[in-house]
Design a protein that fits this description.
Distance between the termini of chain C: 48 Å
CATH superfamily of chain C: Beta-grasp domain
Largest sheet of chain C: 5 strands, mixed
Order of helices and strands of chain C: EHEHEEE
Oligomer: heterotetramer
CATH architecture of chain C: Roll
CATH superfamily of chain A: Molybdopterin biosynthesis MoaE subunit
CATH class of chain C: Alpha Beta
Distance between the termini of chain A: 34 Å
Strand order of the largest sheet of chain C: 2-1-5-3-4
CATH class of chain A: Alpha Beta
Mean pLDDT of chain A: 93
Strand content of chain C: 25-35%
Shape of chain A: elongated
Strand content of chain A: 35-45%
Low-confidence stretches of chain C: 1-5
Radius of gyration of chain A: 16 Å
Number of helices of chain C: 2
Structural class of chain C: alpha+beta
Amino acid sequence: MAYLSERALDLSDLVRQVQSSERGGIASFLGVVRAHHQGRAVLRLDYSAYHEMAEAECARVVAEAETRWPVRVALQHRIGTLEVGEVAVVVVAAGAHRDEAFAACRHVIEELKRRVPIWKREYFADGQVDWVGAADAGQGPA
Amino acid sequence: MAYLSERALDLSDLVRQVQSSERGGIASFLGVVRAHHQGRAVLRLDYSAYHEMAEAECARVVAEAETRWPVRVALQHRIGTLEVGEVAVVVVAAGAHRDEAFAACRHVIEELKRRVPIWKREYFADGQVDWVGAADAGQGPA
Amino acid sequence: MTSSSASTTLSVTVRLFAAYAEAVGRSSVEISLPDGATVGELLAEFRRRVPTAAALPERPLCAVNLTHVLSSHPLRNNDEVAILPPLAGG
Amino acid sequence: MTSSSASTTLSVTVRLFAAYAEAVGRSSVEISLPDGATVGELLAEFRRRVPTAAALPERPLCAVNLTHVLSSHPLRNNDEVAILPPLAGG
């Protein structure tokens, strides 16, 4: 299944992909579009991606988590226009015990934010449209 | 809503209870009945509770988490007979950011296990029926 | 005015659950105690009155009126005292 | 036999995304470089060829063939080099 989706994400679908009678602990994370960003009212977001690389990088992040912990991981990120309150990303990690499920789930969302080439444009109530993070110039290869 | 339920738990239901456009991070945990316990094949479980106290203690655990972190928490534990692979407990914590959502979610499941008077009887494939934890005599008031 | 602890009594309901209800063969027992008795003293009295309570551990987890307590917790008339087997929720 | 780096060339495709595609006004540019050129050298050459690239930061995040790389990464013929705005997934 693709890691990027243009349709609404379904947490239960992803849970089903990793749930089993050998996995007693399932930790998950949902990222939801917030109504405010840095004090300004947000109307909606546009997520875009470098699709081929985002798919490849998501696969690597999932594979690394499944190697580091005894878990199965499901991951999806939504692309396109999202309204406030909609789910942008879902991570689910299932393991025999909750320690590894929580650790893997947290790791995958952190790595996704750090590594997967996805961008968002925020449409504010005041009419302004900004690329999130575009003001930061610091990051880049050492 | 009651914290104990005799019916199948629905993760999406609990997510809806705490999801909002001000809460950008939602962490959740599902506890699933495993097919094995200490190497022995499990057929099913019976969960029972000291109902009045379990409800009161769940309410206290949730209130404490909502005081300690800026989150809303939803919690349900199933009671009765559960088959292998079924969900025994659901915890959902929603906050503006993921740090507090993960911290609160983890805290609530740990406190539930430590404090809420729920017991389980395991039915094993070999015909044996055991109260989980009944062999341990150590715990008690200091 | 205060009475001496021997001159008055209090009555509590002891509730048993799960493995302990099975082991003792009872789920509820009324026990009378001297005024000011603690949970620890109740446990000792409970063992004297109910021989099957010998199956319980020395220091079980206890709750009074739906709240966990230590064995030093003082009891009041009509308290509900629960003797709790090792918890196994989640 | 090995050639001197000036005698052969390699050609790479530079891809731009999101804010950077808007700022530069292009989403894809073909660039020829001396054999053995690095990502850092490509960025310098890209700025010489594409004046609007002045809008990009000095050291942007870069990927080659779908993998994050450092600016010291050596390029090969037909590599796809992506210049990535600050990531904002999740």
